Amino acid sequence: MIIGITQGDINGIGYEVILKTLLENHIFEFCIPVIYGSPKVAAYYRKTLNLEQLSLSSIAHVNEATGKKGYIINCTSDEIKVDLGKSTEMAGEASFLALEAATLDLAAGKLDAIVTAPINKKNIQSPSFTFPGHTEYLEQIFGAGKKGLMLMVSDVVRIAVVTGHIPVSQIAASLTQALVEDKLRLLNQSLQEDFGIVRPRIAVLGLNPHAGDEGLIGEEDQTIIVPAIRKCVDEGIVCVGPFPADGFFGAGTFSSYDAVLAMYHDQGLIPFKTLAMEEGVNFTAGLPVIRTSPGHGTAYELAGQNIASEASFRHALFLAHDIFQNRKTYREIMSNPLKSNHVSRGSSIE
Question: 1-145+287-350 belongs to which homologous superfamily?
């Protein structure tokens, strides 16, 4: 399979984690990685980080990537300049140009998946990019009017969020029974198709402290979340809650479920990054295309020092491959009812 890699913010740790990941030769046994970025910037980081043993072949088009090695497509001008650890307009423009080029190839079926290095959500803003992040950008292109699902993935826990990149002051007003139901359905479907879990078990967190204490501390848990859970249970989805978020994670209850649905960004991502910061991956579920990214940001403070860990990016690359294979297996099973009935007696299609 061919995986497109977008360079992200050139002044952060994006190139460092990309290049360190591609030093592992076994990666070329299961995919052909194609960086969308700048050969000039890649060469700068190879020299700065003493990674010149890594060879990248410059190509003009992705269809030229045919061998078991790394490739790079130039998406920027020759005037591009690295300013380590700084947010610059040039870096924002370069990160968008790489993302746009990879997205076009993904839409054209020339890529099987993309892995996006971290962007600076402020300096990337332009008339061409007016989104809070990658998720919303990809939703507009591939969602056909529907929203995707931010799903954080690790070997320890999977956590999805109902509301994503919105101000905390807007969370309660944005939460509806229909929205919670939609996210539960998306999460359940993704666990089946993308992770090979035949009958997923999903835990649902409450919105308010103590999940509202039966309406004493807010009514949303009883009037929105509980009815949404009941509706989805009636549809055959195995989902339980709402759980008070603090006790749920403090007691380790999350380990009994295949995934957790949190109500808002920080409610899900704070425990996730506490449990799996080094290896956590962000996956945009619910879309017909596959996109993963490392669970960290640009980390300007680490840029150019050769101390950033590539573990999360490596896992993002692995996860993109695994989801591609799981979706293929799922389609094969669903096209063969006899095989599907046989597999359903187990717990996984892997």
Answer: Isopropylmalate Dehydrogenase (3.40.718.10)
Answer whether 284's CB lies under 8 Å from 134's CB: yes
Give the number of residues written for the chain: 350
Distances (CA, A) of 171 to 130, 174, 179, 209, 220: 20, 5, 12, 14, 11
Q: Are 181 and 282 in contact (CB under 8 A)?
A: no
Tell me which of 3.30.300.30, 3.40.630.10, 3.40.718.10, 3.40.50.720 is the CATH number of domain 149-281. Answer: 3.40.718.10
Among candidate residues 150, 131, 160, 118, the one with its CA nearest the CA of residue 294: 118
Q: Above 80 in pLDDT, residue 347? A: no
Domain boundaries of the chain, sorted by first residue: 1-145+287-350, 149-281
At 337, the pLDDT band (50, 70, 90 cuts) reads low
In the predicted structure, residue 114 carries a pLDDT above the cut 60: yes
Q: What is the DSSP letter of 297?
A: -
